[in-house]
Design a protein that fits this description.
There is one protein chain. The chain has helices at residues 14-25, 37-44, 55-64, 101-113, 134-143, 163-168, 181-194, 196-200, 210-241, 245-253, 274-287, 295-318, 346-356, 369-375, 385-389, 402-405, 409-413, 430-435, and strands at 6-10, 29-33, 68-71, 82-85, 122-126, 149-153, 173-177, 205-209, 327-331, 360-364, 380-382, 394-397, 420-423, 439-441. It is elongated and about 75 Å long. The strands form 3 sheets. A 6-stranded parallel beta sheet has the order 3-2-1-4-5-6, with helices on both faces. It has a 6-stranded parallel beta sheet with strand order 11-10-9-12-13-14. The chain has a two-stranded parallel sheet with strand order 7-8. Helix 9 (210-241) crosses helix 11. The N and C termini lie far apart (59 Å). By secondary structure, it is of the alpha/beta class. It binds uridine-5'-diphosphate-xylopyranose.
Length: 450
């Protein structure tokens, strides 16, 4: 029989909602706590408050088992053996640093409402992405409070669009444990019970100290961001020389030490994680007096932001120097496909800037239209690609949704006014579009013979 743990998940946003539902699948009883009554009500009905493939199925099954509840009442976490902290740590409005308000308020909730199980201390497991040093600070606060609890840091690595898969079949699990070996063992054993079905499959589990666990997450995201900015800087070189960055990435990617993944040049990275994580990491390094160690991330960030400028300049150049009155069809607004997330989305930023330059922007997105309409009522967002493309002077593919990648160049040509396309994600076949009469511009890529 599977070990059974009574779990609370504090914070039912992207991370917490997925985590709560998936923990039921592992055989546990879960209560998800959030301050947002609307979100709690939706989740309780099995409705995902955001677009995430597979989540509603997992939610529905977990709710039907009777072992998953969502609530706004913090007293519901009493009686749980283990508490996951899964609240957000967004970028602060006026600095690069992470806003830790929600983490500390989650810790306060646990200290006020958690109880100590019969068989040993309560366990508090941090999953939020936090500045290094936070786990120890939380452990110190807990030690000074009236609750016998062990703090463990257990970073998540989930990607939007693959969140369920990344939670139930992660490629590794990291536990950041306290220095006190006996307490650490208690924390390790508790998390081993939670993740038993995953660990039984041989998933690597790394036992490390607090700072290492906290650094693993930001180091991984910094590496990924660096890889993307590296290939985007190569795209700039390709633009200057006539090279093709996609073929370049294919060629260097065959070297196993480099690998082809995360070498897709384009308009750069966005979303709720990579941009804010590298900035918070730089801010923390500054506080620690080692800002020089991460100066390269400043460059990674600027290369990334330069991609957006480049896309806007390219559109302006293609329009003959002025965008006023030029109809631009923007295909894609989310930061990546299979997501409705427009946080720090390069596509949305570019659409807004084109509009600012006087272009008649008509944008569309299969999942991001609703959030953009709410956020940017000034932007003209239509429901279908056909409406956006109708009579366009320039087409810009900014998020590589499969339905845009599958557009037929000849048929699309027959509906636009002028066949000019900017492939912001290098997702199209340049030759096929050029052969159909389009002026095709990729990111560090042209329609060359080879
Ligand atoms: C990322 C990390 O991948 C994940 O491990 C971490 O837990 C959270 O942050 P996510 O934000 O969901 O996940 O998106 P990801 O798939 O990593 O893409 C991030 C951005 O980089 C997107 O805007 C994407 O379009 C862009 N990207 C990705 C590129 O521009 N080129 C690439 O080669 C890969």
């Amino acid at each position: 029989m599977l070990p059974h743990v009574r779990i609370s998940v504090i914070g039912c946003g992207y991370l917490g909602a997925v985590h709560a539902a998936c923990m039921v699948g592992l055989g546990h009883d879960v209560v998800g706590l959030d301050v947002d009554a609307v979100k709690v009500e939706q989740l309780s009905r099995g409705v995902a408050p955001f677009h995430e493939p597979g989540l509603e199925e997992v939610l529905t099954e977990a709710l039907a088992s009777g072992r998953l509840t969502f609530t706004t009442d913090p007293s519901a976490i009493a009686g749980c053996d283990l508490h996951f902290i899964a609240v957000g740590t967004p970028q602060q409005a006026k600095s690069y640093a992470a806003d830790m308000t929600y983490v500390w308020s989650a810790v306060d909730t646990v200290l006020q409402h958690a109880t100590v199980p019969e068989e040993g201390p309560a366990v508090i497991v941090g999953k939020s992405t936090v500045p290094v040093g936070t786990a120890q600070a939380i452990a110190d606060r807990v030690a000074g409070a009236d609750l016998d609890a062990v703090v463990v840091w257990n970073p998540e690595f989930l990607r939007e669009g693959f969140a369920v898969q990344d939670t139930t079949a992660p490629d590794r699990i990291v536990y950041g444990l306290p220095e006190d070996r006996e307490r650490g063992e208690l924390g390790r054993a508790a998390l081993d019970r939670v993740y038993a079905p995953i660990l039984e499959r041989g998933t690597p589990r790394l036992l490390v100290n607090y700072p290492t666990a906290e650094l693993v997450k930001v180091a991984a995201n910094s590496f990924l961001a660096t890889k993307i900015s590296f290939i985007n800087s190569m795209a700039e070189l390709c633009d200057a020389t006539g090279g093709d960055v996609a073929r370049l990435a294919d060629a260097i990617g065959h070297d196993e030490r480099i690998g082809r993944k995360f070498l897709r040049a384009g308009i750069g990275f966005g979303g709720g994680c990579l941009p804010k994580d590298i900035r918070a990491f730089m801010a923390r390094a500054g506080e620690l007096g080692v800002d020089q160690s991460l100066t390269f991330l400043r460059e990674v960030d600027s290369i990334n932001l330069r991609r957006r400028d480049h896309a806007v300049e390219l559109a302006t150049e293609m329009a003959g120097g002025r965008l006023v009155g030029v109809k631009v069809a923007v295909l894609g607004l989310t930061f990546k496909p299979d997501s409705d997330d427009v946080r720090d989305s390069p596509a949305l930023d570019i659409a807004g800037r084109l509009w600012g330059r006087g272009a008649t922007v008509v944008a569309t997105d299969p999942a991001g239209a609703a959030p953009v309409r709410a956020m940017r009522p000034d932007l003209h967002v239509v429901d279908t690609a056909a409406e956006a493309l109708d009579g366009a002077d320039i087409v810009m593919l900014l998020t590589e949704w499969p339905e845009y990648v599958a557009l037929d160049p000849a048929r699309t040509r027959s509906v636009v006014r002028t066949p000019r396309i900017i492939d912001g994600r290098n997702a199209l076949d340049p030759r096929a579009w050029a052969d159909a009469g389009w002026d095709y511009r990729g990111m560090g890529r042209t329609a060359s013979t080879w």
